[in-house]
Structure formats: C-alpha cells, structure tokens
Amino acid sequence: MSTGKPALDIRVDVQHTWREDESSPLENRYVFSYTVTVHNHSPHSIQIMARYWKITQSSGQVQEVRGKGVVGKQPMIAPGQTFRYTSRAILDGPVGFMEGAYTCVDTASQRPVEVPVDVFRLATPNQVH
C-alpha cells in the first residue's frame, strides 16, 4: 500500500583503516578504525536514535552491539546534509566483518526508519580471504 509520500533516501558509507600502532598480533588484538558518513538525500530532516552492529570475528565469534545514538550523540541531519563520525572495532584476528543498521526518526512524521549498513570487511594489509 503506497501513501504517496516519497521514501526517505538515506545512504551510509563506511571507510576503515587498520590501526597497526594500536594492534598487537601476538596478543590476537587487531584494532580497526572506521569512519561512517550518513548522507540524508531525503526531503525531511532525520535524527539518528540508535545503532546496531554485528561484528564477526576471525574466530567466527559474533558480537552484537546496540546502543543509543552514535558516539554519545543523537544527531539531527537536515535534508542534503551529512553526519560523519569515527569509531573503533577490536578483532581477535586479522580479518573480520561488520554490518548493522541505524534507527532514525523522520522528523516530519515522527516515524522510525531502519537504515541498513551493508556488510564490510575489516582486514590487515595483504590478507587474501
């Protein structure tokens, strides 16, 4: 059933970097920083209310992280604007995967909207798999 209202057009880009200076392979500690940019291409402002991350470790262990907002904030993103933040993930091996979603609110309708974050690979340099 269509309401005739345009769908929210929100895009999420993620860039990541291995933090060799903070990692300790001998201790199975691989630190990655990741920068998320949320682009609001919709006609309404949105507010990021919560986040969900699924982190798959090299060992196969899966960790789920849920929380309010991002980096201690629940940012409002106006139409045509972006919000960017950087965070970290610590893996138990040189390769892992992250995926997730943001729960946003369309400020015009006060309706919650789930914005998925596609799976992305975290890997130290020269990893084949």
Describe the structure.
By secondary structure, the protein is mainly β. 0% of the residues lie in helices and 58% in strands. It is built from no helices and eight strands. The strands form two sheets. Strands 3, 4, 5, 7 and 8 form a five-stranded antiparallel sheet that branches. The chain has a three-stranded antiparallel sheet with strand order 1-2-6, with no helix packed on it. A hairpin with a 5-residue loop joins strand 3 and strand 4. The radius of gyration is 17 Å and the shape is elongated. The N and C termini lie far apart (43 Å). Mean pLDDT is 92; it is low at 1-6.
Task: Outline the fold blueprint.
Blueprint: E1 10-18, E2 30-40, E3 46-56, E4 62-68, E5 76-77, E6 82-91, E7 95-106, E8 111-123
Antiparallel strand pairs: 1-2, 2-6, 3-4, 3-5, 3-7, 7-8
